[in-house]
Amino acid sequence: MDCKPWCVPLNDGHFIPALGFGTAVPMKVPKSQVIEATKIAIDAGFRHIDCAYSYQIEEEVGLAIRSKIADGTVKREDIFYTSKLWPTFSRPELVRPSLEKSLKKLQFDYVDLYIIHFPMPLQPSDKSVPVDENGQVLFDTVDLRDTWEAMEKCKDAGLAKSIGVSNFNHRQLEMILNKPGLKYKPVCNQVECHPYLNQNKLLDFCKSKDIVLVAYCALGTSRDPRWVHQSAPVLLEDPVLGAMAKKYKRSPALIALRYQLQRGVVVLAKSFNEKRIKENLQAFEFQLTSEDIRVLDGLNRNFRYNTAKFFGEHPNYPFSDEY
């Protein structure tokens, strides 16, 4: 795979581009715009595309990628594509069929990375969040080590080049790492991470285990009311970020992205605006001083935009732990 401008090695020998294009769609964005934005991102130079079964846009994203392969812009091996296993498919026998559903929608033979979306199994259902007649979310009791074993089989079958997790705390990661007969370690843990939630402790833990931290919500959030309280602070309006943006003659978004790159974090940037998509790639064109990194570290307030509150009562709810 083309490793320009920057790739990070994974613990299984593969490489992940350090800057990825996020595709989680706010309600107000039509699916047709996802196709256009993904094409623009690939034309601009993005080679890492992050998606998920639950976003319900894998057909559109697959179409965009295939059209860029067809017109000669990229080859399939140039693209690093991530998909995710939704909690309703946590039972081991459902893991491979769920990945195969994604592959069918994408019209791909494999994904580059397949990750467990949340460590909170839900009962199998056609709905994303199954509930009983009283509106209570229907949790499932599945040992995530069994789910992980099924993920390992997907890797062995060549359906996923690499496998990892998302939204796991350090205790849940330890559980997988200490699993008897572990064949493959998770290559990554994709979590919310930005200057207001810098995840320093989790980052140090992941580095010590040779697991890459991947940051979502790195620019704050699209403020989708399904996930985010509307009174939440707007990260990119933070005065410290604003002052630093002036100093470097860059946007606050670029400061936030560069901050992650210099910490060794793989970072996802989501935008459906052509100008911003292209601008986000400028994160490779400048460097923050170590003092400025310290200043940005100081913005941490352990503030989480995506609390996954509808999972709050789940025995595996990951965000009650410190990290």
TrEMBL record:
Residues 19-300 form the NADP-dependent oxidoreductase domain. GO terms for molecular function: androsterone dehydrogenase [NAD(P)+] activity. Coiled coil: none annotated. The active site is at residue 55. InterPro entries: AKR, AKR1C, Aldo/ket_reductase_CS, NAD(P)_OxRdtase_dom_sf, NADP_OxRdtase_dom. Keywords: NADP, Oxidoreductase. It comes from the Eukaryota. Substrate binds at residue 117. The record marks 84 as: Lowers pKa of active site Tyr. Belongs to the aldo/keto reductase family. This is Aldo-keto reductase family 1, member C14. It comes from Jaculus jaculus (Lesser Egyptian jerboa).
